[in-house]
Amino acid sequence: DDGDHRNDTVILFITSISRMLGTYRVGFGQNIASLQAAVDSLNYRGVRGNVVFQLVDNSYAQTTDLVFRKVRYSDGASARITFKPAAGVVPTITLNNGSRIVWDFATSNVGVDGSNATGATPNRALTIIQSNPGTPAFFLSRGASNNLIQNCTIQTAQVIGKTPAKLNQRSIGIWIKNQYPNYPDDTLACSGNDIKIGRASCR
Q1: Does residue 198 sit in helix, strand or coil?
Q2: Fewer CB within 10 Å: C terminus or N terminus of the chain?
């Protein structure tokens, strides 16, 4: 330091986090430790191609909404994001405290596929349990399109009330928010699901 700061040199280091691509294993000791961390990474980083999140733990628990935001793409909006069980794993996701799995406004190309079968016939290896009466397990906001929920066992809780009608009411497995005319959701793939207790599979 010569005391003359007019000739000092400043070195600026800039680092960037690449967008996601390929397969990531989600669970204890894996690439990504939890479902929340996986969704946070997806929402923050975006993608540059197809991404698969493989669930490797036997159980996962959520106490707040797991929210898919509108994904940022670096190569157009055609890439698919899929959450599914790893081979040989039969995981359960338990939604506590009224938490849900949510597609935010205008989120597209995000799917949950409960099958990990290696053959042509899918199975239902993934179970989602909604523990809060009256709350859907899945919620799709306005403008969400080209998404997928398939081959899952979805267990919802019975609504407890005083009247027989209320006692018979069930939570909804998959709730699709009423759509604005300019934001229709006409491309949700919703098939192969087993909705237990729920009074409707898709509403």
Answers
A1: coil
A2: N
